[in-house]
Amino acid sequence: MVINMNNKINILGVNIDNLSFNDAFEKTKQLLESSNLDLIFTPNPEIIMLAQNDKNFRDILNSASICTPDGIGVVYGAKILKTPLVERVAGFDLATSLIGHAAESGKSIFLFGAAPNIAETAAEKLCEKYPNLKIAGTRNGYFTESETDEIVNQINNSNADILFACLGAPKQEKWLYDNRDKLNVKLALGLGGALDVFAGNVKRAPKIFIKLNLEWFYRLLKQPTRIKRFMALPKFIIVVMRSRKKVGK
Questions:
Q1: What sign has the CA pseudo-torsion 85, 88, 94, 97?
Q2: Burial of 33 (0-12, 13-18, 19+ CB in 10 A)
Q3: Dihedral of CA 213/217/219/222: which sign?
Q4: Does residue 69 contact residue 78 with C-beta atoms inside 8 Å?
Q5: pLDDT, tens digit, 9 for 90 and up, residues 90-145
Q6: What is the pLDDT of residue 205?
Q7: What is the domain partition of the chain in residue ranges?
Q8: Is the separation of the CB atoms in 149 and 97 below 8 Å?
Q9: Gyration radius of the chain over CA positions
Q10: Cβ atoms 9, 83 nearer than 8 A
Q11: Which residues are within 8 A (CB) of 192 and not within 5 positions of it... i.e. 6 or more apart?
Q12: What kind and span of H or E run contains 118?
């Protein structure tokens, strides 16, 4: 099946692919079979707001082979602009489906990011859940710029097909983009705190919260100290509304 990737929605300068989850997953599997490295980014409102004052970061997001709307706020923003998106495509869900596909197809994954020992724990738990999964290697996200080449070599020497970079935005996106010509993997995704969830240190919201588009609220209840980060959502909505007025929509 050929997926149309020309339908993009511009939200505050960031081009979001207007795909259903199933189409995004199918396209991801297609990219995995290509010979070149493809980058997948999953911006939420906070990431899009970061890109407002960082043109380099905005250009990096727009360079991705797939850029999905990770966060119901992005979907709401698109509605405000009268350019609706099909649905939210969460990076964690996309990664989870990709893990299942990798286990079935024999593809291997390298886990990069989070605090020391988190990637290793995530690898153990994922292999328990997916007995056929191949974890090519792990590396924590604490490093200096001088260690970058060493990390790239470690990833390349592992012969991994897929790289999960979980360094937080915008660090993970910039790191992947800056090293795209050195990495030998076929697919690399920026996935924020996904390794903490896979490791069991952070719990994903119950399905009812996800279904009601209230995952952000559940996370706020569990981690009230993140209130400043969650304030990016109302700010994002306000900025989107102002941008709509500027173009006369």
A1: negative
A2: exposed
A3: negative
A4: yes
A5: 999 999 999 999 999 999 999 999 999 999 999 999 999 999 999 999 999 999 99
A6: 67
A7: 10-198, 207-243
A8: no
A9: 18
A10: yes
A11: 91, 166, 168, 169, 172
A12: helix 118-129
Q: What is the CATH number of domain 10-198?
A: 3.40.50
Burial 66-92, CB ≥16 within 10 A → b, else e = bbbbbbbbbbbbbeebebebbbbbbbb
Q: What is the pTM of this model?
A: 0.92
- Whether 31 and 38 have beta carbons less than 8 Å apart is answered as yes
Task: Let me know how long the chain is.
Answer: 249
Q: What is the H or E stretch that residue 122 is in?
A: helix 118-129
Judge whether 141 and 166 are in contact, CB under 8 Å. yes
- 35 φ, ψ (degrees, to nearest 5): -90, -20
Beta-carbon contacts of residue 32 (< 8 Å; ≥ 6 apart) = 98, 101, 107, 161, 162, 186, 187
Structure token digits, residue 78: 């698109």
117 phi and psi, to 5 degrees? 80, -10
Q: How many CB atoms lie within 10 A of CB 148?
A: 14
